[in-house]
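Deliverable D2.4 — example input (structure tokens):
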């Protein structure tokens, strides 16, 4: 039986993750890479998991990269808008008209019953809600807003994929200066279960 407090090492991707990749034989494989913003023919499994999240309907496991400072010391991360299916029809219609480079604005959803750090994304005037930031990044985004100021944290549209499933419809990018002594993904929920490798496959 697998022990969650052990670390396991393998030469190949574990089935738990390999099963989350879209098979190359699927007719929509090329479209899938396009939705993720990857080059046609890209076969880097970790890139695909990082961009797509590796989401499956049968569980709640998600895969995502922890941002690191860029060479010019910025925090930059791309992600898909979450919760579009909960947005009203007029918001979905506005999403369809978003252009690459268009700026979006963050607003705390302080009465959200499921996430104390929930962050809505909105368009400029006229204002429409266009989804949520991923829950696993919200705490980092809020800290950046507090540390560097709202004017230096910028969210822009990278791509709007009109033919994609809703979870891949709107791809965004958040950019901000990397504050001194800031660490991404430092919340307790991101702490590894295994302190050191103790098993192998």
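Example output (designed residues):
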């Amino acid at each position: 039986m697998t022990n969650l407090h052990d670390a396991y090492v393998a030469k190949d991707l574990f089935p738990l993750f390999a099963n989350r990749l879209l098979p190359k034989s699927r007719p929509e494989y090329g479209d899938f890479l396009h939705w993720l913003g990857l080059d046609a023919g890209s076969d880097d499994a970790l890139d695909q998991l990082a961009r797509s999240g590796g989401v499956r309907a049968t569980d709640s496991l998600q895969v995502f990269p922890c941002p690191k400072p860029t060479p010019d010391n910025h925090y930059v991360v791309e992600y898909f808008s979450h919760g579009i299916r909960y947005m009203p029809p007029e918001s979905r219609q506005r999403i369809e008209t978003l252009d690459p480079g268009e700026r979006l604005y963050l607003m705390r959803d302080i009465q959200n019953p499921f996430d104390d750090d929930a962050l809505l994304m909105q368009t400029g005037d006229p204002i429409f809600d266009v989804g949520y930031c991923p829950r696993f990044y919200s705490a980092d985004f809020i800290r950046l807003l507090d540390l560097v100021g709202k004017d230096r944290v910028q969210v822009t549209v990278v791509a709007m994929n009109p033919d994609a499933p809703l979870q891949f419809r709107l791809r965004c990018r958040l950019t901000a200066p990397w504050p001194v002594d800031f660490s991404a993904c430092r919340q307790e929920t991101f702490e590894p279960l295994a302190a050191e490798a103790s098993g192998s496959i």
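The chain has a mean pLDDT of 90.
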